[in-house]
Write a structure and sequence with these properties.
globular, 3-stranded antiparallel β-sheet, 6 strands, Rubrerythrin, domain 2, mainly alpha, binds s-citryldethia Coenzyme A, single chain, 51% helix
């Protein structure tokens, strides 16, 4: 028995089906609303609007729950690694040893870039924003690896492995270019994260061997960023993919959306905020006061979330990891103390308590990346590397939906009614 919602407008009453998700979430299916009533809905920012059914990631914002394909993020953080988590998100279950070995081998195989990519990197200014380079170079992959507009399963698998592998190489090369350092080829004997750190920090005369603690910490950061249901950048990937744009083009668009300081760019903004407080630009209390003053235009970066009205479970894990990683690396970072202080006074402040504003994934991640020697302007690039499997999983889920349609929202027009053209001499 399908439950319905009754809508009465004027002399018309219609019943709209109510859809129930596997965790009991309810949604009113309005796909026939305009056809039946001529009405559309209006929901700027889509805070009340579901764009799709999805089986990839579940978030309960009130309880602070995050699960990838049903597995709690805490268990994955404790037991898994980035390659295995990527497979889980894309294919819906944990890989067998054979599947994981095959996937790892394809990630190793696809790590190198076509030599001509170097000419593209050389064409960018050395201070080009890394997210601009990343988005451009992911699109450029389409030029070197023309994708089938309708990939079959085998083609999709290779495209997914190619993108997850090469995004890492592109990121490392853009960093090396920005530092005036030679590009470092991927080392086929290294696993995903160790290979990335090798490409970032080795030199032709000396291989950088990342410590197990750093490899473990970066695996954790990438896993925690791997997916987050219908966030801004993932929704962007779905919208672009809905026009049958290929995987590279869709994920390049996701990079652009992630760049914004309200989204993935927040991890850079958090470090800048913490550094400003530490340098004495402003005190933690002043930062909080500014964040509460709407006229300041300042927000407490790394705080608040559209969905979480409780602790972001990723922030809880990262806060704990920050201690462990900095301790294992023997790094004492005063910004960690500033972050802790800021969190403490914010969580005691009525403004934040009333609005249920808690630290999100971006609040502590930058402190850990900084301790690893990753430059601040690469933080959002690391976020993009982590989010790539989630974008790919959502692109595929939509691609496989036979009933899928091109994304094309409506609007409420508020502009001029019909107006005649006036020749310039009479204006
Ligand atoms: C990510 O969607 C995802 O899943 C994203 C992400 C993912 O994994 O993909 O989780 C990653 O993007 C995390 C968020 C990173 N961004 C930041 O840390 C930037 C700072 N945060 C805010 O800008 C804000 O909290 C957002 C953008 C995250 C959420 O914005 P919403 O849902 O549109 O919330 P809102 O602007 O409607 O805020 C509600 C109220 C407002 O006050 P009132 O008008 O009710 O008086 O809370 C206030 C806001 O002014 N508020 C803040 C605040 N965040 C919200 N006030 C001060 N500082 C903040 N950080």
């Amino acid at each position: 028995m399908t439950r319905t919602a009754t809508l009465t407008f004027g002399d018309q009453t219609i019943e709209l089906p109510v859809i129930e998700g596997s965790e009991g979430e309810l949604g009113v299916d309005i796909s026939q609303l305009r056809a039946k009533t001529g009405l559309i809905t209006l929901d700027p920012g889509f805070g009340n609007t579901g764009a799709c059914r999805s089986a990839i990631t579940y978030i309960d914002g009130d309880k602070g729950i995050l699960r990838y394909r049903g597995i709690p993020i805490e268990q994955l953080a404790e037991n898994s690694n980035f390659a295995e988590t990527a497979w889980l998100l894309i294919y819906g279950k944990l890989p067998s040893q054979e599947q994981l070995d095959t996937f790892s081998e394809r990630l190793r195989f696809h790590a190198p870039l076509h030599e001509s990519f170097k000419h593209h990197f050389e064409g960018f200014p050395v201070d080009a924003p890394p997210m601009a380079t990343l988005s451009a170079m992911i699109n450029t992959l389409s030029c070197f690896h023309p994708e089938s507009p309708e990939p079959d399963e085998a083609e999709f698998f290779e495209e997914a492995a190619r993108l997850i592998s090469k995004v890492r190489t592109i990121a490392a090369y853009s960093y090396r270019r920005s530092m005036g350092l030679p590009y470092i080829y991927p080392a086929p004997h290294l696993h995903y994260v160790a290979n990335f750190l090798h490409m970032m920090f080795s030199n032709p005369y000396e291989q950088h061997v990342a410590s197990p603690e750093v490899v473990k910490a970066l695996n954790l950061i990438l896993m925690l960023h791997a997916d987050h249901e219908q966030n801004c950048s993932t929704s962007t990937v779905r919208v672009v993919g809905s026009s049958k744009a290929n995987l590279f083009a869709s994920c390049a668009a996701g990079v652009s959306a992630l760049w914004g300081p309200l989204h993935g760019g927040a991890n850079v903004a958090v470090l800048e905020m913490l550094e400003s407080i530490h340098r004495g630009g402003i005190s933690a209390e002043q930062a909080l006061a500014q964040a509460k003053d709407k006229s300041s235009g300042f927000r407490l970066m790394g705080f608040g979330h559209r969905v979480y009205k409780n602790f972001d479970p990723r922030a809880v894990i990262l806060k704990k990891a920050a201690d462990e990683v900095l301790g294992s690396l023997g790094v004492k970072d005063p910004l960690l103390d500033v972050a802790r202080r800021l969190e403490q006074i914010a969580l005691e402040d009525p403004y934040f308590v009333e609005r249920k504003l808690y630290p999100n994934v971006d609040f502590y991640s930058g402190i850990i990346m900084r301790a690893m020697g990753i430059p601040t302007n690469m933080f959002t690039v690391i976020f993009a590397i982590g989010r790539m499997p989630g974008w790919i999983a959502h692109w595929k889920e939509q691609y496989d939906d036979q009933a899928g349609r091109i994304a094309r929202p409506r609007q409420i027009y508020t502009g001029n009614t019909e107006t005649d053209y006036v020749a310039i001499g009479k204006r």
